[in-house]
Inverse folding.
């Protein structure tokens, strides 16, 4: 069907003013692959994810989604963005809309899906993620875990080919983390291609086909979870994982 | 609107009495009666109070000026013109101001001149006194001989002036609302593949407008009063009608009537604004607890 990689980043640079945050990122994600980005706070994980769909414009380099260069001048970035689902740490649901409207807004307005069909799809997804009884609630009536599940459903409603998850459990109470991780595992089992920034090392080790260690805007080391977690090559990676273990998070 | 909270103790017990309790009601009633009685005594005993009562509060003049008489306009009838001016202006202000606020927020170098015009507009019309704008538009434009634009009824120039001036204020209110919506909302919308315009229309503006309804209503209370200034262009609205009556009858009861009409129509809007503010406050507190 598609021999192109799901995602290809080549020499991506990004600065905020003087602060160079991404310093030449090269990264390839194959279809159905799950790649986890780990690295200290401020290493540029969130920025990297935002640059993939050009919500943050990049300074130089190329971003290619399924063979189409989203960074090319002539390409309508909105069209390609619709194939990429992003879920953020802070949910960012639309507070003035019901759950159902949150989920159907983009399919209806960006894809032109008619209302009945959009609502049926949304209903199916909400049911799958145990949210059907919340469809007419407003986000402020939901728990953090429920809000984050709605945010995931909202992204899935666009039928994305690629999902980007940015520390989707970091804003949640510990007892709510598991329900979200279960949802992501489910997506992985179904073959969803995902690029996941996370601090949940146990989870990353479990779910990832590949781990990328990000340090100060560069990918220092990448490989299968067994080798990264048990035999990291780079001293910086060792140091980072050492601190994680000390904190009891691995 | 439905009143929330526990059932009232009696059918006639209002919100205030419930909060105060029986003793509280007694005390507040007594203090209110005493307070106004003292004011009445002072007013009646003041030197010249008889003249004041005759010139301002004579019942037959109050009534005559309200309903009008042969050769003299009715203040109430003229007040209908204020109401019409207000309603027309309000619609145009809401639209024009929104356009200005949105244009001011469009990013990108291509739109620089548009932003510049929007900024210049708000600076200009917030700075110039309304009465000068009325003179310039109301006396200036008819003198230009620009086809039908120069032959509109006087009141139309009044409406145009009010729209020009008030849109500058209201645009700033909108802009504050737009800026109060966190950028992450826009990022979330754009990430879903919505265009900049769709994000603004479906995500940012609805939240922004909801937040600025109380300050918008405040501006409209101001607008209601400023409709009286349109009289400088010759329209006989309530203030002008009152003036005509006063000048002809050497009595100022007509001004009192006009003033009361303005107050009467402002009170519901003011209470409605208070209510919305209280509701927002409750919502915010509920949100903070969640
Ligand atoms: N919108 C922004 N404006 C300015 N600086 C930013 C912005 N977003 C991120 N940064 C900076 O970029 C660096 C990387 O941040 P981020 O990508 O959020 O890292 P991480 O997600 O790995 O914690 C930090 O130094 C941060 O201050
Ligand atoms: Mg981050």
């Amino acid at each position: 069907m598609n021999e192109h990689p799901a995602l290809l980043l080549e020499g991506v640079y990004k600065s905020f003013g003087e602060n160079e945050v991404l310093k030449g990122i090269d990264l390839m994600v194959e279809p159905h692959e799950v790649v986890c980005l780990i690295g200290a706070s401020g290493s540029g994980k969130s920025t990297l994810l935002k640059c993939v769909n050009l919500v943050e414009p990049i300074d130089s380099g190329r971003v290619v989604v399924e063979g189409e260069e989203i960074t090319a001048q002539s390409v309508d970035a909105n069209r390609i963005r619709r194939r990429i689902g992003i879920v953020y740490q802070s949910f960012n649901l639309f507070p003035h809309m019901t759950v159902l409207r949150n989920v159907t807004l983009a399919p209806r307005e960006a894809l032109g899906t008619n209302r009945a069909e959009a609502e049926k799809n949304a209903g199916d997804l909400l049911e799958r993620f145990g949210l059907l009884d919340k469809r007419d609630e407003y986000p402020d009536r939901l728990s953090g875990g429920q809000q984050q599940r709605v945010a995931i459903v909202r992204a899935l409603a666009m039928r994305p080919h690629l999902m980007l998850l940015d520390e989707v459990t970091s804003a949640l109470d510990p007892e709510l983390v598991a329900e979200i991780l279960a949802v992501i595992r489910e997506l992985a089992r179904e073959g969803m291609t995902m690029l996941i920034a996370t601090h949940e090392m146990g989870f990353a080790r479990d779910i990832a086909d590949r781990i990328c260690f990000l340090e100060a805007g560069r990918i220092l080391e990448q490989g299968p979870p067994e080798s990264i977690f048990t035999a990291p090559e780079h001293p910086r990676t060792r140091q980072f994982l050492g601190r994680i273990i000390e904190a009891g998070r691995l | 609107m439905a009143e929330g909270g526990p059932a009232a103790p009696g059918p006639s017990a209002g919100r205030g009495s419930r909060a105060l309790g029986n003793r509280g009601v007694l005390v507040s009633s007594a203090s209110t009666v005493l307070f106004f009685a003292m004011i009445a005594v002072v007013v009646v005993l003041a030197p010249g109070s008889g003249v004041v009562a005759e010139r301002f509060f004579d019942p037959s003049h109050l009534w005559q000026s309200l309903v009008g008489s042969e050769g003299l306009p009715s203040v109430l009838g003229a007040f209908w013109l204020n109401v019409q001016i207000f309603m027309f202006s309000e619609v145009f202000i809401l639209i024009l101001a929104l356009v200005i606020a949105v244009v001011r927020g469009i990013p990108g170098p291509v739109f620089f001149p548009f932003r510049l015009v929007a900024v210049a507009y708000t600076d200009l019309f917030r700075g110039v006194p309304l009465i000068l704008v009325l003179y310039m538009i109301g006396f200036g434009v008819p003198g230009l001989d620009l086809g039908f634009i120069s032959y509109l009824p006087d009141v139309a120039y009044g409406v145009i002036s009010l729209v020009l001036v008030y849109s500058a204020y209201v645009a700033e209110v909108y802009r504050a609302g737009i800026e109060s919506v966190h950028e992450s909302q826009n990022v979330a919308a754009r990430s879903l593949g919505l265009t900049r315009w769709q994000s603004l229309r479906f995500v940012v503006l609805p939240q922004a407008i909801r937040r600025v309804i109380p300050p918008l209503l405040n501006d409209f209370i101001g607008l209601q009063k400023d409709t009286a200034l349109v009289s400088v262009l010759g329209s006989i609205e309530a203030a002008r009608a009152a003036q005509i009556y006063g000048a002809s009858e050497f009595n100022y009861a007509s001004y009192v009537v006009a003033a009361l009409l303005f107050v009467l129509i402002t009170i519901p809007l003011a209470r409605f604004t208070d209510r919305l503010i209280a509701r927002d406050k409750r919502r915010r507190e509920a949100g903070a607890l969640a």
Summary: Chain B touches chain A at residues 184-185, 187-195, 198, 202-203, 206-207, 210, 286-287, 290 (CB under 8 Å). Residues 1-14 of chain B have pLDDT under 50 and may be disordered. The radius of gyration of chain B is 25 Å.
